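Why does residue order matter? Because the sequence determines the fold. Keep that principle in mind as you read this record.
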Amino acid sequence: MTFSVRGQNVTVVGAARSGVAAALLLAERGARVTLTDESAGLEETTAARLRDAGVALELGIRQGGTFTSSDLLVLSPGVPLDQPAVAAARHAGVHVMGEIELASRWLSGRIVAITGTKGKSTTTTLTGRMFAAGGLKTVVGGNIGTPLSSQVASSTPDTFHIVEVSSFQLETTDTFHPWIAVLLNLSSDHLDRHGSMEVYGAAKARIFANQTGDDWAVINADDPQTLELARAARAKKVFFSASTPLVPLSSIRLIGKHLVADVMAAATVAQIAGVSHDAIVQAVESFIGLEHALEPLASVNGVLFVNDSKATNVEAAQRAIESFERGLIVIMGGRFKSGDLSRLREPLQARAASVVAIGEAAPLITRALEDVVSVEHAATLEQAVRRAYELAPRDGVVLLAPACASFDMFRDYAERGDVFKREVLKLVEENRSRER
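Structure:
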């Protein structure tokens, strides 16, 4: 039976990008839609567009009243299932799903879904470029770029939807069915939301839940936890490894050896879809990485500044640190989610001269690392950039690798990365002025 919401009362929870897209899609499909968010912040142009589509807005008020009277509740990724108002609605028998699940029910094209603790955005973007280079009709989005709900109108049977999916999105799936599902890796992250590695891993493994023997599961052969999670998958399994190059290593222009695995994952997916080897190599050669992901910015008096604001957990920060040989000054800190900071001791001791700590986690970072590397505190990221530059050797690297979420000081990791970049640009301009 075709999924329909016509005439139903549907509440969308969370007025960020995916929530807005879901609300507009639901209204277009004939539902009576309410978009609710405890924050009152919504751009007036977006609010006007929603109102014009017939969406009622409940902004800046405590959620709950609308929930239990709804036929369907659609959650944005940032809304946990155990939020009291959501739990009450579920207890009352209201159907609850996430935005990814909702949109996937109306897609005509095939889904390539990519998840993992680290490398999702790089792999998703590069996979999309490989498909496009191979002449395939491709849309990239999900947890990055275009929300899946915004792709429904243009979805055709020959469309490939290359979708980054997070654990938050996967835990609210029910019928979500990727043709190709990719699990890149698994390490401790988001335990403040999921509570345990078992629950976190189970959310990730849902990417395989609805696949059949006609589908494909692409799995990291070098990651034991990934192999274990994929054991029960019914799809045809294909394994990738950083040690088995499918493209010439000389064609990869990315900082960080760990990113080789992401390239190989993308190449494996493209091969399954029938993309030629030449098109795959062409896409790799033209790809210089993503913003905020080991992004080289500028050199000032021989000091290279690198922005890895997306390194929001310990595993990601470790990989970033290990991408360099010596002369590192690392800016770390923010809102600590979970993980073992002691994992950073050995790589920092071997490579770093100092750590500059910021945000709520600064005391944790100090306690975990101060006996192996000098740790200083800075009140703001701007101050941290200045101090890191002062500490850096002239052939060194100032690396932003927070190992923490950004929410204590910034809206998200992108805003944190943008502030870092602006301060580096100021240093560049100041240095030019002195040289004139």
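The longest helix spans residues 413-435.
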